[in-house]
Amino acid sequence: MSPIISVIVGRAQCYKVSMYVTSVPNRGSPPAVLLRESYRDEGKVKTRTLANLSHWPERKVETLKRALKGLSPAIDLSEAFEITRSLPHGHVAAVLGSAQRLGMQELIDATPSRKRDLVTAMLVAQVIGPGSKLATARGLRTETATSSLGQVLGVTGCDEDDLYAAMDWALQRKGAIENALAARHLANGTLVLYDVSSAAFEGRTCPLGAIGHPKDGVKGRLQIVYGLLCTTEGVPIAIEVFEGNTADPKTLTAQISKLKDRLAQADQKITDLAGFRSQALARLAAQHEEIIRLREHASRTSRVTRLPATQPQRPGPPAETTLL
User: Fold this and answer.
1) pTM above 0.70, yes or no
2) Which of 172, 205, 220 is the last residue of a domain?
């Protein structure tokens, strides 16, 4: 039992009290479970009831008894909680955090939006658990989530149609994204790497699907051909999808033309910036000369003269006053 020290105000007398739980038999009824305290007052032991705990379940009463005695709970605290759901989060935090540090979301679109979050979710999902858009949508939804990715990005209510719509939106921004990547990682004289591959797929409605030389070993099925342009460090810069029967040299010609156009645009931007700088410096020089001319003109025609400095007056003797 845990002692409690109380003070009686006015009498300045201290006494010790102890709380405990006891059971009192009842005739024809279950025993009464009471919370009591015993204390010593003026040399006499007294007891009083604080609460009736008869309506408490037995497990709760036993827990209170052990607490009043200073004992630990009878069961492990980990067993006192029931885990209804636990979503993996570590890999999501690692991949999404790396993407954010690389500025991936700002590269997709500078303005935050739901479509940008959906595109980010698909990119992260392809790293932590590659799958179809249907599987990705199920992994993001609250009811069927396989990780905390949907909850972190706030896209738990999406379906596969939302993901396809976000892909169409990202396709419209493809040129801007590739230009931003090229400006970030490429410069004149930079060595780039290019590779071509193919991928077979199910379905018959893709306008680019065609029978061609399968680089993935799957024969007799429609496929697409895609070319990836990247830096020597493996940073992807641009990707282009071609018809499944397109020969490799044709894809290379298209990528070279695109790369030349991007470098020409970059050179044009540098030229425009240099011209703007020259114009700005010329305007600043003209404004400076105008200011000097106005100052000289004002100094010749000004009629404002400086007032002579006043001499400080010295305090004289105090004046005499006559009281009448």
Assistant:
1) no
2) 172
